[in-house]
Amino acid sequence: MNCILFDLDNTLYSPDRQLFALMDKRINSYMHEVAGIPLDQVDELRRSYWQRYGVTMQGLMRHHQVDPEDYLRYVHDIDVPSRLAPDPLLRQALQALPQRRVVFTNSSVCHSERVLQALGLSDLFEKIYDIRIAGYLPKPYPDPYRAVLDHLGTEAGDCIMVEDTPENLLTAKQFGMGTVLVGPPHAADFVDVQIDHAAQMPEAMAFWSGA
């Protein structure tokens, strides 16, 4: 294995930090105030678009002619440092990994950079691949996975995907990647290793080293 693809939100930091709660408010606000969707329809539409397209933005693009760049700027305009702080244990763990490390996220590069800076990890990743990598199609669609592999110039079988979302790992496994789930155990044969925190990645790598 020569490359590890890390998801960002709720993977490199705990969901307990509640950063997503800030984005949730911004998404609802955008849908109502910018896209003009009646407030009493926002929650139902968000659930529907998430289930159908993987992210709310795709539904807004397809059905409400929303500009994806405007959406990304608005939704990610949050106070990241109010929820995240440097994580020296995670930094040490990542530095111990000899593999190439990249971020592969459904968010934006700007948001990712702010998160990495808040965590004290900005210098530890070769590249950030965001939702723009395949025309705003999100994980778990196969297109962004294929695009990331092409950009990296590597084979799926040489990569490990680290994620908090099982559905995204399913696609990774279908490509032939190794898979690590960060969060509660999930009984599925497409999950190779389950860990509670990304800082456990050096130990998780024993699955592939045969140690």
Would you write up a description of this structure?
The chain has 211 residues and is an alpha/beta fold. It folds into two domains: 137 residues, Rossmann fold (3-Layer(aba) Sandwich); 57 residues, DNA polymerase, domain 1 (Orthogonal Bundle), CATH 1.10.150. It is 45% helix and 12% strand. It contains ten helices and six strands. It has a six-stranded parallel beta sheet with strand order 3-2-1-4-5-6, sandwiched between helices. Helix 2 packs across helix 3. The mean pLDDT is 95.
Strand order of the largest sheet: 3-2-1-4-5-6
Question: Beta fraction of the residues?
Answer: 5-15%
Name the CATH superfamily assignment of the largest domain.
Answer: HAD superfamily/HAD-like
Terminal CA distance: 14 Å
Q: Any idea what the shape is? A: globular
Q: What is the CA-based Rg, rounded?
A: 17 Å
* Average pLDDT taken over every residue: 95
Number of helices: 10
Secondary structure category: alpha/beta
Profile the largest sheet. 6 strands, parallel
Q: What's the helix-strand series?
A: EHHHHHEHEHEHEEHH
CATH first level of the largest domain? Alpha Beta
CATH architecture of the largest domain: 3-Layer(aba) Sandwich
Poorly predicted regions: none
Beta strands, count:
6
CATH level 3 topology of the largest domain: Rossmann fold
Helix-residue proportion: 40-55%
> What's the number of domains?
2
List the helices and strands and how they pair.
Elements: E1 3-6, H1 19-34, H2 39-53, H3 56-64, H4 68-75, H5 88-95, E2 100-104, H6 109-119, E3 127-129, H7 142-152, E4 159-163, H8 166-175, E5 178-182, E6 193-195, H9 201-204, H10 206-209
Parallel strand pairs: 1-2, 1-4, 2-3, 4-5, 5-6
